[in-house]
Design goal:
The protein is mainly α. The protein has one domain. It is built from four helices and no strands. Helix 2 packs across helix 3. The radius of gyration is 12 Å and the shape is globular.
Length: 66
C-alpha cells in the first residue's frame, strides 16, 4: 500500500496491471530502483510479469488469500 501511494498517489486497489507489475519488479531492491524510471532490463521484467498476470488470472490467488 505504501509503495502504491508513494509512486502512483493512489491506493493499491486502484492500480492498473502495469502499475502493479512495476511495483513487483522493484523487489528485492526497492531503495535502488524507481517504478517511474525503469531500466530496459526492468521494463522487460514488467512485460514478463504482465504476461504472467494475464496467463494466470486472479483465480490462482483464492487459495493463497484464504
Amino acid at each position: 500500500e505504501a509503495a502504491s501511494q508513494y509512486y502512483f498517489n493512489k491506493p493499491a486497489s486502484k492500480l492498473t496491471r502495469n502499475e502493479a507489475a512495476r511495483l513487483a519488479v522493484l523487489l528485492p531492491g526497492p531503495r535502488s530502483r524507481d517504478a517511474r524510471q525503469l531500466t530496459p532490463y526492468l521494463q522487460q521484467r514488467v512485460a514478463w510479469v504482465e504476461r504472467q498476470m494475464q496467463q494466470l488470472g486472479a483465480g490462482y490467488l483464492g487459495p493463497i488469500l484464504k
